[in-house]
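Note to self: keep these together.
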Amino acid sequence: MPAKTATREFGLIGFDHVDLKIKDRAKARRFFVEQLGMDVIGEGAEHTYLLFGDQVLGLRDAKEGEGPTGIDRIAIRVSEWTGLRSRVSRARVTITGEKEREDSRSLFLRGPEGLRIELVWRPDPHAHHCSHPPAVVPRTDEDDDA
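Structure:
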C-alpha cells in the first residue's frame, strides 16, 4: 500500500480560485465579462470576482511597487477544516494568516519562491459568495483600444 501523501492528508480537492494582480482592473473586468462571457459575482474597492462554470477568477489591483500583472495567489479547496492547521504545521509549512468569513474559512501559506497559497474550506463547496455586490463600470473610449 502506498504511503499517504500530504495531498490526501490536507484534503485538497481542487482549485477554489486564482487571483491575478492587474494594473487596470476596469479594463480587465470588461475583457473577461464582455469578450469571454464571465459573470461578475462580487466587487470591492480593490478586487473583482468573476465566475465561469464553477471556477472563480479574482482580479486585484496591483499595489504600489508591485509588478503590474501576474498571479497574486492560488486558492485550493480543502474537504474539511477540522485539524487542518495542525496538519499543515506538522508538515512544516509556514502559515502566514487565517481568515474566517460567513461562507468560508482560509489558511494562508507561504509557498516556494514567495508564492502565496490559500487553503479554503466552504460548507457548501458549490457556493461562491462575495460580500460586495457587483458594480456597474462605465465604458470609456479607451476600451476600444483593447
